[in-house]
Design a protein that fits this description.
Blueprint: E1 2-3, H1 8-17, H2 32-38, E2 42-45, H3 49-61, E3 67-72, H4 80-83
Parallel strand pairs: 1-3, 2-3
Length: 90
């Protein structure tokens, strides 16, 4: 789970299309790792690529239930240019 502390796409739209008038898009999140543990799931936080790689390896080895991996991030780039890319037909 990538955690940017906001509804990132909503915030970006407000900044780009509404003159930086931002409302109700920043979040105060719970501790998602502790929250997942409270439901009996495995969970951990990965703060860099090395930690993420190790967390993914551990998660794939587990066979007894879900694993949440939280990755704290700053503002993410817009995905829309990739979602709306013209399709190459062969």
């Amino acid at each position: 789970m990538f955690n940017d502390g906001a509804f990132g796409n909503v915030r970006r739209t407000q900044e780009e299309q509404f003159g930086n008038r931002v409302i109700a898009s920043d979040l105060t999140n719970p501790d998602f790792v502790r929250y997942a543990h409270s439901f009996g799931a495995e969970a951990e936080r990965a703060r860099n690529p090395q930690e993420l790689r190790a967390a993914l390896k551990r998660a794939f080895k587990r066979r007894d239930g879900p694993t949440l991996i939280e990755v704290p991030v700053s503002q993410m780039p817009s995905p829309w240019e990739f979602i709306h890319m013209p399709r190459v037909r062969g």
